[in-house]
Each structure stands twice: as structure tokens, then as C-alpha cells.
Write a structure and sequence with these properties.
mainly alpha, flat
């Protein structure tokens, strides 16, 4: 299993009927989690102790790194005061894009390629 964990999203997206029923539940659950009330995005919740995620974080642009740090600062302040942000400052679902996932997938692909090259055996003809 990789850092991102198992995902049924490709299977659900392949079936229009299944997507029609699962999408509202997914939006309801994302709102229920409460991270948007703190101004965070979904990728801000990734476990940072993983070496793959550490390498992916190092590949973020300076602007993305600053925005991520600022979101953590705002969330820490909300947690300190025990109340969420005002409704107009919540993260919007359309702004909640996976900014870290492409970097993590790229790191995983590189590790897989490195493993393939490292374990390759040369055979003489």
C-alpha cells in the first residue's frame, strides 16, 4: 500500500450511476470532517512523517509552501481559541484541489523506477 492509501475513486468515476449516488455523500462527509472550517485543504491533512511525503513537500513551489504554512498558522489560531473561522473565510470546495498528490505520486513512481533499476539483473547472451 502506498502513502495515499487505497482509493475507490477511479472505480466510482467509471460508473455514472455510482458517481451520482456517491458524490453527494462524499461532499457531505468532507464538510463534516471540519478541516475546511479551519481554512485547511485536504492535502494539508497528509501524514508528514512519511519519507515520500517529505520529499514531495520539498518539491512544492515557494508560494505553495508559504500558503500551506499560513493555513497551518490560521488553523492553529482557531484551535487555540476553540472556534472555527467565520463562514466567509472557510475553504471553498472548489478551491480544495489536491496540490500535494501529484508530487507524492511522482515520488512513488521514481522510487518504483529506482527499485526496478537497482534490482535489475544483467544476463549475457
Amino acid at each position: 500500500m502506498n502513502v495515499l492509501g487505497p482509493s475507490l475513486a477511479p472505480y466510482i468515476r467509471s460508473s455514472r450511476t455510482l458517481e451520482k449516488y456517491v458524490t453527494p455523500i462524499a461532499h457531505w462527509y468532507a464538510n463534516l470532517m471540519g478541516y475546511r472550517k479551519m481554512g485547511l485543504k485536504y492535502d494539508d491533512l497528509q501524514v508528514e512523517e512519511s519519507p515520500q511525503v517529505q520529499r514531495a513537500l520539498g518539491r512544492l513551489t515557494p508560494r505553495e509552501t508559504y500558503d500551506r504554512s499560513f493555513r497551518f498558522k490560521i488553523a492553529s489560531d482557531c484551535d487555540l481559541h476553540h472556534k472555527p473561522l467565520p463562514k466567509e473565510q472557510w475553504s471553498k470546495p472548489e478551491d480544495d484541489k489536491r496540490y500535494l498528490q501529484p508530487h507524492i505520486l511522482n515520488v512513488l513512481k521514481e522510487e518504483e523506477e529506482r527499485f526496478t533499476w537497482d534490482t535489475m539483473t544483467v544476463q549475457r547472451k
